[in-house]
Amino acid sequence: MPDKKLTDDLDWEDVRYFLALGRHCSLSATARALRVTHATVSRRVTRLEALLGRPLFERRAGGYSLTLDGKAVFDEATAMDNAASSVLRRLDESTGLSGLVRLTAGRSLAEGFLVERLDGLRRRHPAIDIEIIGDVRLLSLARGEADLALRFGKPKNSELAARRVGTIAFGLYIASSLRYGSDVATRLPLIGFDKAGDSIAEAEWLARHFAGRRFSFRGNSQAAQAAAARAGFGIALLPRYLAANDPRLAEIACDKPLLERELWLLFRSDLRRVARVRAVADYLIELFRREGPRFLGSSEFLDGRAADLADIGPSRARENADPDLRQ
Predict the structure, then answer these.
(1) How many Å apart are CA 92 and CA 124, to the nearest integer?
(2) Of 182, 178, 327, nearest to 250 (Cα)?
(3) Which residues of 161-185 are buried (b: 16+ CB within 10 A; e: fewer)?
(4) DSSP code for 257
(5) In sequence order, what are the beta bridge partners of 150?
(6) Given this model, what pLDDT does residue 303 score?
(7) Are 305 and 260 in contact (CB under 8 A)?
(8) What's the CA gap between 165 and 150, in Å, rounded?
């Protein structure tokens, strides 16, 4: 009888919040992932602990750590979550070319390229709904927080399917209104990421090739950096797809090997059987193949070269191979 009462009182939403906190280990990260407030996360977890009559977390200065009881509950709850996800995926397989597909990508790629090119997908599959998440949050494909992800860097060490969809070339840009000569690359200050973005490939390239140079502007997105370059703050390292056709920006010569980054499409292998996800993935692969010259820049276009596709199938792709979504 007590067991039945306990089961009757259990709120599965509390379990979901508990799982999220166990995975993210901090209230702030969990709140961002679930799009709720810190107080909501804390209240849900506290209520589950009160129901079970034992603490599930140790509250430490560095974050939340599962207790022994918490680890046992976490394992059981994870198994339940996986079973529920399996049921939902089976239902998904029968929905055909309709329903929601969630795609996560870097902000500049999402807003500066993808959105305006999805009209062809809408016309081809009008019953498929698209949600694009282009921000700094790290969304997990394994936990169903997104269906598809566009990530920089060659993936490894995971069980996701992955396909390389292109190579993105970068250039150095300044405001086209500035007067400049051959010394511009050594004279003007730089534009780059804030300190939290020091590990991003673009920031590392600037630090390596322009060590000690002044940064007149820092921002946490390439859209902000491009705007700063247009405003005359200095030199920005930008992807050519974002800057090459902007009349307010001018590319300057560089005597250093410019940055190139591989772009990969990632998704769970089991989603291959979900028609709407497969349809969106196929459209994205086709789109990046067609737009390859735009990503490589004008010189590559004149050479007739485009981004190649290397399908590594159900790879051992590490979902967070290069997880930063601030691009």
Answers:
(1) 20
(2) 178
(3) bbbbbbbbbbbbbbbeeeeeeeebb
(4) P
(5) 265
(6) 35
(7) no
(8) 9
Helices (H), the chain: 2-9, 12-24, 27-34, 38-52, 68-93, 107-109, 119-124, 184-187, 201-209, 222-230, 240-243, 275-290, 292-296, 298-303
**Cα-Cα-Cα-Cα dihedral sign, residues 139, 141, 143, 145:** positive
User: Which amino acid, one-letter code, is at 81?
Assistant: D
Mention every residue, 6+ apart, whose C-beta is less than 8 A from residue 212.
none
> Is-contact 238 246, C-beta < 8 A?
no
Chain position carrying tokens 């502007």? 217
Mean pLDDT of each 10-residue bin along the chain, 327 residues long: 54 87 88 85 91 90 88 87 63 68 88 89 93 67 77 73 90 88 85 85 93 93 93 95 89 90 86 87 92 67 32 39 38
Would you say 276 and 98 are in contact if contact means Cβ atoms under 8 Å apart?
yes
* Count of C-beta atoms within a 10 Å radius of residue 271: 22
